[in-house]
Amino acid sequence: MSAGLPGALQDAIARFTADIAPKDLAARSASLTQTYRSGAGSNVIANDRDVAAYLTTRLPATYAAMAAVLDAVNERAPHFAPTRLLDAGAGPGTASWAAAELWPSLKAITMLDRNPHLLAAARTLALTSPHPSLSSAAFISSDLASLSPSTGNLLLLPSPLVGSRADQRQQSCRRPERVGALRSSARPTEGGAASARLEASEQAASYDLILAGYTFAELSGASRDRILASLWTACSGTLVIVEPGTPAGFATILACRTTLLAAGARIVAPCAGAHPCPIAAPDWCHFAERLPRSRAHMRAKDASVPFEDEKFAYLAVAREGLELTPLEARILAQPHATKPGVRFRLCTPSGLADRMVLKRDKPAYKAVSRKTWGDAL
Ligand SMILES: C[S@@+](CC[C@H](N)C(=O)[O-])C[C@H]1O[C@@H](n2cnc3c(N)ncnc32)[C@H](O)[C@@H]1O
Which tens digit of pLDDT belongs to each residue from 316-340? Predict the structure, then answer.
């Protein structure tokens, strides 16, 4: 999948930001960057101008990271064809757009966020999508903390229309959405019709794809564990968490990995094994995706080059039953080309490894010569 935004999304963002003076957009973008760098969250986004700054300067990067991660999931699970997506901490719907590009199988998308301004933008943008799953998406204005794993089935109402732009585009709300059959991870093992019925209703109410793009960074330790448990409970297929590619982002991913493995999750990507992660500080596991910058993006950041590199850390896990292709290793850093060949830093099923592939070993060299940081071997 391309790291660049789909045309319909680019156009919708251009319309959203059209009324905002470039100077104003640049000031808001600078302040947003400062906010994220300081570790503060998206609650500073409090009006359409702030949203416009996010759409112009952050969404292209979070989209590129999510698109790269979903490609990695698709590579390992080529038969995975999700139908029901929960975008947890959807913001303007970035992850949903990436998923809709990759999986035409998607039939129902639910975007949940606590920021009404971002969620209103998500609705405005989604209405312009050529993908029916996006243009008919459901929106839930709520805190993820309300998805308590101990509550059982939880009924959440779609948001009222929020924000001035969304108000202009009144549309019928979908019926209240049941968010996940919040079942315990211990699945019933006894047979019989009653248990089969229970199983069927759980399947119907859960999500076979849950995406959390740059959401966990905004959760505190205690609520993070609780929300992770709820999301895993609501997930019948694959759960994907993407975070900034910083030591703090990796620490969050590592904590989620430990919890999810203990709950019986199988790792889809990036790790080649389910052993304790061998990467220790000051090193951290992260990847990078190069994305194009639009002219508005360059202007807002006073940038001189038409691209940027987004660094991210991630984890994709699945429940039993998803068919995964074997993963020999994943490339953990930019390959180092030398005269005799190319050297790779690898995550393998037995831990970290450095591997030199020599040019004179023609078949092996040909097989890896186009491989780069983040690719699977
Ligand atoms: C950095 S933004 C990422 C938005 C989007 N996923 C993306 O990748 O562009 C983080 C989002 O998570 C949402 N969020 C953070 N904590 C939340 C919570 N406890 N409940 C619901 N949404 C939350 C914020 O409102 C914000 O929209």
Answer: 999 999 999 999 999 999 999 999 9
Q: Whose CA is nearest to atom 12 of ligand 1?
A: 89
Q: Ligand 1 centre from 139 Cα, in Å?
A: 13
- 8 A C-beta contact, residue 349 and residue 273: yes
- Residue nearest ligand 1's atom 26 by CA: 91
Question: Residue 208: which residues within 8 A CB-CB, separation 6 or more?
Answer: 82, 83, 84, 235, 236, 237, 238
Q: Please provide the distance, in angstroms rounded to a whole number, between the alpha carbons at the two ends of the chain.
A: 19
Assessment of whether the complete model's pTM goes beyond 0.90: no
Residue 232 Cα to ligand 1 middle (Å): 17
Return the pLDDT at 116: 96
Q: Domain 7-184+193-323: give its CATH superfamily.
A: Vaccinia Virus protein VP39 (3.40.50.150)
Ligand 1: list residues with CB < 6 Å: 41-42, 59, 62, 89-91, 94-95, 113-115, 118, 143-145, 213-215, 218-219
